[in-house]
Every structure is written in structure tokens, then in C-alpha cells.
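Hey, resending since the last one bounced:
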Amino acid sequence: MNRWRRPLSQVALAASRLLIITGAWFDEILRMRWDEVDPESGVMRLKDSMTGAKVIFLNKPAVEVLEALPRMLDNPYVIAGDKEGTNLVNPEKPWDAIREKAKIQGVDIHDLRHTFASYAIQGGMNLEMLGALLGHNQTSTTRRYAHLDSRQHRENSEITGKAINSILKR
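The C-alpha cells again:
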């Protein structure tokens, strides 16, 4: 390992954080190049993604993760791989290590994208806006990502029930 390389665990942790706080696909994060990142404008302008060219909006926590990552010599990738000039290609082993340290079982790396979507919906974002953030063309696709927990279902039921009940009591 060259003296200027950072440990893979730091790279994997940064990739995992970017996944959960941006809702991006893991391939989009792993293949992201420094010339596609514009922290001043708060965007990543991906030249190629699963759906072609795509803009991913960077929230403040994502910008902080990116700013904490040093640029590697002769490596255009944000999430640098083991070999000079390459990106991390297989996040599964580092993800397994992160899950073990965090003591979480049964959480796939793709679940981080679902977590982003679920928190967005629970925070009040509508499906259309969330779909745009995730790069979905169909609202039905977004619906599969946005999981509400039972508290959110209960709160929504209470709000709806009270609203209808107030009309019925008139």
C-alpha cells in the first residue's frame, strides 16, 4: 500500500454514508468521479448512471462526507479502490465489516437507499418529489422504496380519523 492511500475502511464508511444520506444507487456512488462533484452548487452531475446522465442533490451532510475525503493522487474516483486509479468495485466485504461493527444483521447495502426513501416519506415528502430525487420514472417504483413504520401508519390513521370524525359531528 502506498503511503498516501487511506484505509479502505474509511472509503467504505464514506460510501455507506453517502448512500444513506443521498439515496443514490451504490454504483452511482462507487463510480462517482471528482470532476462530477460540485459541492459549491450542492450537486453531483453524473455523466452516466443507471438512467443515463443524472443530477444528485448533495445535502450538507453529504458535502461534509465528501470534503472529509482526501483526493487520491492519480485517481479520478471519489471512492478509491485498492489499486491506483481505480474505484471500489465490491462494497460487500467492507459493508459486512461495517454491519458487524454496528451490530446490525440482515441489512443489505441496497437497503440504505430504501432507508433514505422511507425517512423522506415519513418527513412529509410526497412520492413524486421523492421519485425525482431517486431518479425514478414511475411513482409505482418509488412506492416500493418508501416504507412507513407502524407509528407513521398510526399517526396518519389518527389524523384522517379525527378529520372525518369532526365532519361527522357537525
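The longest strand covers residues 43-46.

Sorry for the duplicate.
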